[in-house]
Amino acid sequence: MSFNLCESNVKNVSVVHDSTKSKMEFDSQENYVVTEIVPETSSNHSVTTILGYCKRKMLNPYLRILSFMGLRPLVNIQENSPILELINCLYIVILIFFMVLGYILQYMSCFRRDRGFWYNIPHSNLYGTKNNDEKAIQENICYGSTIFSFILPSSLHFVAYIHAIYTLRCSDDDQLPVLMERVILASSNLSNGFVVQKKLMKTLWIFIVISMIWMLMSCISIASMITEGNIDFRWIPSERSNILDTTLKVLLVVSILWHDMVEAIIISNYCLQSQLLMSYVFFLRERLLQHAIEPIKWMREIEEFKKMLQYLNSEVAKSVSLFTLINISYALSGLLWLFKLDFVDKETLPIFGISVLIILLWFSIAIIPLVQAIRLTNACERLKEVGQAVRVRPFVHSGTPGSELDSVLLYTSSLKIHAILYGNRITGSLFCFCFVIACIIVMVLGMCHYLSF
């Protein structure tokens, strides 16, 4: 089911849904306008009104963001149009070229995402050395392992982006709009459906706002590091013109910001779909408990949910897993460097406040998808208990044959649904176990004098 189908079915009719009647009229451009909402017994609005509101206020703007990031076609092709197809192909080629250029500029400037620049400040011993020999500076500007510091993280980041493009664009992924529509429809028959729908929209916007704040803080940290010292670029003479120097710095900042935008949007897409699936589970559970749906139809809805969950686990989660792997590596590497446990990089020193901010940013964007996966798994576990809850409510399901209730009980108890990242089931107990192990490692390092405060 799609939004277009819902809109086409209501173009010339009035919509009446349960306890609410919405009178609708259409202008010359065939757009419907709600002129009056007359509640009969509650404050619920019509399903079509809610769907239209969600599409205008949340879904369409977010899909335009995905198109801008290259994750969906830039121009929607209604018919076979070679020109529009060429525009879409050229746009994605430009974005990929810009991504690769960003990786090259990071290596040229020796900018590491986990700690920042290796600065050349001849007259200060805050960063680097006082060696004024240009040849020595060019040789030592990027010390350490090139593979682990630049090539491997950039390659994993690029592969994650390409996989996200394939998943969200080349495979004609429409799960987000379809999932949102199913969630709204599933909540429409609940006693407090309109309230939970509004709460859901606010929650989805919170994830989008958080991703924007993360990108803003990342941009601030990069801009702050740019102004701390003189940046040398490999293969570029240090006595270059001011125009070239400014151009390289601007390209570096914009490309790094673009990398962060791509990652934040892809991870937010996973979080949005996880939140919608959690809400879908909750609404389906409440509909069965309130006897707003027949058991057989309910089990069919669960099968549709399992397909969407499988798509999230097998397709969307792969690129998110790669990004999370890189982010955790950045966070831990930056933390060890902050505690002066890097035995090679002893010349660069942290920038007060900015280095801590970078580590917190990497930890936050790494933890958010893990938390969402844990919450989704917990929601799926609660779904297994609904069969028992229905069976012990004889008054709510008094008209339902006992054989159907037994079928629901057997069906729910045999469900195997959970969120998957890195090919493994993500649960709160697993997360707590990893956290305890990390705390033990930190304590042991401190007792063995590897950490000092």
TrEMBL record:
Organism: Henosepilachna vigintioctopunctata
Keywords: Membrane, Transmembrane, Transmembrane helix
Name the record gives this protein: Gustatory receptor
Keyword Transmembrane carried by entry: yes
Transmembrane segments: 83-105, 204-226, 246-272, 316-339, 351-374, 430-452
Lineage: superkingdom: Eukaryota
